[in-house]
Amino acid sequence: EKGTYPHYMLKEIEEQPFVIRKIIQQYQDEDGNVTIDPSIVSEFNQADRLYIVAAGTSYHAGLVGKQYFEKLAQIPTEVHLASEFVYNIPLLSKKPLFIFISQSGETADSRAALVEVKKLGYKSVTITNVPDSTLSREADYTLLLHAGPEIAVASTKAYTAQIAVLAIVADVLRKSKGIEKDIDLAHELAIVANAMEEICDSKDEFETIASDYLSFARNAFFIGRTLDYAVCLEGALKLKEISYIQAEGFAGGELKHGPIALIEDGTPVIALATQENVNLNIRGNVKEVVARDAYSCIISMEGLEMSGDRFILPAVHELLTPLISVVPLQYISYYAALHRGCDVDKPRNLAKSVTVE
Ligand code: M6R
């Protein structure tokens, strides 16, 4: 039930701090360290390469997951769209392990890919919100999201839950391989939950950004680099699916290779700046679009902020920024859709779970 909330989407955005805390609880051992089923750890440790397969928002979570597996656990990882994978299976490594990410566990494209993987005799893990879903039953192992039912068609809390679970798996693998890194993930995720709460307290600011930038927009761009780029793809999907504004996420450095031709007087460009090593680069990209009269808005993070930034996120571990930088983008989409009179929870032409290929 959505209780006092006008829409499920708003309720689900604001549940995210609780979901992160629930995930910490569910994946913690007696000593407070993150943990997962040892048989899953051993399956991962036998793999020479991971293949993440998913659709839509779950695919976007997979793009972040790849960074975790490679940076924390040093396992090469590929991310594939389920609908492409089925008809164009890539050259696989000697010992692949497949990870299916799906909120519903019922997405037909992902299921079709799982069927192919099983035919080839490979092992699979499903990361899903729905126990006993098709993908959960048919994969060898399941990791649950513990996000509670997600009703709005636009996925919000499942995305952050997926990223949190992927971070936990990668960190557990890191420790199992004896890779030293100064990170206490349970503690860092607790900081994320608090940061999310602070961001939710600023929702009026995101409503203002939505009305300033998007009330009459025909199109909108989201730009970022590295992890911020992955979040920009998700921000653009969110905006297009519920507000029907044509929205695209671009890697900042790619603008000059084509997309900058689309910038006109007043084109809204929302930039994320949460990554220290590319902070100056993304700000350079913002200057390039502003020089073409774009209407820009920078969302940065404490410690990396500069004057003129529209919103400064509380600081979290730099690998975990997608968990918080997506929240303003979710709110901005929500309010943009609301101001434009769209049916936020049930956008046209879309279903919550896509059970046809
Ligand atoms: O249930 P799944 O995670 O497998 O669903 C995948 C996509 O259909 C889903 O994420 C879709 O893109 C959402 N409407 C995005 O908000």
From TrEMBL:
Q: What is this protein called?
A: Glutamine--fructose-6-phosphate aminotransferase [isomerizing]
Drop me one GO molecular function for this one. glutamine-fructose-6-phosphate transaminase (isomerizing) activity
Source organism per entry reads Fervidibacillus halotolerans
Q: Where is the SIS domain positioned along the sequence? A: 40-179, 209-347
What this protein is reported to do is described as: Catalyzes the first step in hexosamine metabolism, converting fructose-6P into glucosamine-6P using glutamine as a nitrogen source.
Assembly and partners are described as:
Homodimer.
Which reaction does this chain catalyze?
Answer: D-fructose 6-phosphate + L-glutamine = D-glucosamine 6-phosphate + L-glutamate
Give the source's domain of life in one word: Bacteria
GO cellular-component term (any): cytosol
Intracellular or extracellular location(s): Cytoplasm
**Catalytic activity, EC:** 2.6.1.16
Which residues participate directly in catalysis? K352
Keywords for this protein: Aminotransferase, Cytoplasm, Glutamine amidotransferase, Repeat, Transferase
Q: Which GO terms describe its biological process?
A: carbohydrate metabolic process; fructose 6-phosphate metabolic process; protein N-linked glycosylation; UDP-N-acetylglucosamine metabolic process
